[in-house]
What does this fold into?
Amino acid sequence: MFDLDSWQEIAQSLARNKLRGLLTACGVFWGIFMLVTMLGIGRGLEQGTRKNLGNMTMRSVFIWTQRTSLPYRGLQPGRYLRLRNDDIAALRRVPGVKYVAPRLQLGGWRDGQNVIAGAKSGNFTVMGDYPDFRHVEPIQVLHGRFLNWRDVNDVRKVAVLGDQTRGVLFGDTDPIGKYIQVKGVYLQVIGEVTTDRTGDDGDRVRFSVFVPFSTFQRAFNDRDHVGWFALGAKDKAAPEVVESAAKSVLAARHTVHPQDQDAIGSYNAAAQIAKVEGLFRGLRLFIWFVGTLTLLAGVLGVSNILLITVKERTRELGVRKALGATPWTIVSMVLKEAVVLTSLSGYLGLVAGVGALELLTKVLERLPNAPLNRPEVDLRVALSAMLVLVLSGTLAGVVPARHAARISPVEALRTE
It folds into this structure.
């Protein structure tokens, strides 16, 4: 702990050259300010990307069919594969598969259908789904419930609405128990859902109508057809292995050449999320690298200024040594001054950085679809920044302190 005399000496030393001390402190201030703001923005960008992915489970695999590109067993290339209901049971037998959610969409990709509720209507995506779909791509139930197995087995004419669909068709009224009409088919509303995902991915849930898979096939005359599959891997199963095995099973069932890479398409959420996490790990390392270099530039400025200060105080240091001051006393005096200067200016930079992030948060609250989520600095980052400050202050004072400790009292007293 510093005693009162030490604080007075440090204050007097800094007050002798206020402008020089202020400019030197600005270097450290700017270094820690840039480090904190870049880390906060990087974290906000990472959280925004995760939000855009809707916290999708890392064990999700999506599989769909396309056209074949290779001939096989007398069949010509260019065939378009059509998934069938019996593929559902086949995929359930694939090792590592926990959830199988076949999906159907009324119309083509991104095509909507006119949905009517009383005097109101709108164009929305109409999906046929299994209850397992919510385990593959998590969605939040706001009111009522999601589809269950009795809905599928009993071919119930029920529907679950996305929150934006509910807003257009029913406004602020409770839609549970009311009816909607799709292509002349009446469906009773049993629930309302939403998602954390943003952009087009989020809109596909919010502006959708979810119907039991069996009801969809029968009501819209799309029997024995599956549009695509959403699979969930077991906890101990590697999603990439499940993806490969599922594609192999479908290829064998639909007479596809084993080397045909175009016939069956897939999307592995785990692989994509791993790439994103790798990207952000690299970004964090880059931010720490750039921020630390910026901070070190300020620290070098502090070290240079303290060297100049030591030279200006050569006579004073000689008197101190002549009166019995030990080298450690001289070293500790210079180190204290360096630590105080860097810590004070760095703390102000830390506070300014947090304030800038809070201001940016206020701006982002008005932009819900922005790719940048709430930028923030967690406790670990703050503690790390303070540790860097203390180390930087100590480092800045090492060279001037050693120079001061080597001053000879006789030569110092001769100095004008």
